[in-house]
From TrEMBL:
It catalyses: agmatine + H2O = urea + putrescine. Mn(2+) binds at residues 112, 135, 137, 139, 215, 217. This is Agmatinase. InterPro entries: Agmatinase-rel, Ureohydrolase, Ureohydrolase_dom_sf, Ureohydrolase_Mn_BS. One of its GO terms (biological process) is spermidine biosynthetic process. Binds 2 manganese ions per subunit. It holds the Pfam family Arginase. Catalyzes the formation of putrescine from agmatine. SUPFAM superfamilies: Arginase/deacetylase. Keywords: Hydrolase, Manganese, Metal-binding, Polyamine biosynthesis, Putrescine biosynthesis, Spermidine biosynthesis.
């Protein structure tokens, strides 16, 4: 994929045609090789772009328009199907280039393992980084069925890299007992809820750069059925948007983000992809202005 050329496929609505003078780079990671239940999230980035045509370019929540942000859609990284180790390496190389060019990386997954190489690269650039993780699942296993490269392991890898007290988990409602005990002891752990605990946390991290990773299954399946590992009892789409706006209005320095685990094959109405697309719009307008 050449950074200086516009993506030849469908692009996110109103994307800027040139990489060089863009402030934000949207990129897809079509990988679902290690999922523990239902595959299909490799088609998420394409579908999120496709349904974005139905969005208005104006956000009434933030009173901003997409034309106010220069963002480039670089398309999907051409990952080698079935090779998670090489895919993780390629994602890291890709994101390193974006960061070195001083741009905001906004990734679309793909399974949640894709967040691991991104956070590695962001942490290299910002050693005082904090990670905000919103998910139904802890993702704190050291391995899944003996495999360390799994969508059940990325946050454990992050904790081992940068320390659990630099990682904040919200909305978690599923995992092994051992994972919950680990999170309670070593991390900033806020299970079941997102918005209210987030409001309390944001002022405490205002002076630090933050990377935000969102698994779409943090939402209840009623609002986001198109994902691989459904977990009842999640937040609503209205609350998800409120969370994005709370972060936008907090003044914290967001230095990158991703939305993962959208699997469109399980959602014939496209409501999950439409939600994710709207989330991308609000992130573009709300989080990239405080760099």
């Amino acid at each position: 994929m050449k950074f200086d050329e516009a993506y030849s496929g469908n692009v996110f609505i109103a994307a800027h045609p040139h990489y060089e003078d863009a402030e934000v780079v949207i990129y897809g990671m079509p990988m679902d090789f290690t999922v523990s239940y239902r595959p299909g999230s490799r088609f998420g980035p394409k579908k999120i772009r496709e349904v974005s045509i139905g969005l208005e370019e104006y956000s009434p929540y933030l009173n901003r328009e997409l034309k106010e942000v220069k963002y480039f859609d670089a398309g999907d990284i051409p990952l080698p199907f079935g090779n998670p180790e090489r895919s993780v390496e390629m994602i890291g190389d890709y994101v390193r280039k974006i960061l070195n060019d001083g741009k905001f990386p906004l990734g679309l997954g793909g399974e949640h393992l894709v967040a691991w190489p991104i956070i590695q690269e962001v942490y290299k650039k910002y050693p005082d980084l904090v990670v905000i993780h919103m998910d139904a699942h802890t993702d704190l296993r050291t391995d899944y069925e003996g495999e360390p490269y799994s969508h059940a392991t990325p946050i454990r890898k992050v904790v081992e890299l940068m320390g659990g007290k630099n990682v904040y988990q919200f909305g978690i409602r599923s995992g092994l007992k051992e994972e919950f005990e680990f999170a309670k002891e070593y991390m900033n752990f806020y299970p079941f809820e997102v918005l209210e605990p987030l409001k309390k946390v944001l002022p405490t991290i205002k002076n630090r750069p933050a990377y935000i990773t969102i698994d779409i299954d943090v939402l209840d399946p009623a609002f986001a059925p198109g994902t691989g590992t459904l977990e009842s009892g999640g937040i609503s789409s209205k609350e998800m948007l409120a969370v994005i706006h709370e972060i936008a209005n907090s003044g914290i320095k967001v230095v990158g983000a991703d939305i993962v685990e959208v699997a469109p094959v399980y959602d014939p109405a496209d409501q999950t992809a439409i939600l994710a697309s709207k989330m991308v719009r609000e992130i573009l307008l709300g989080w990239t202005q405080n760099q």
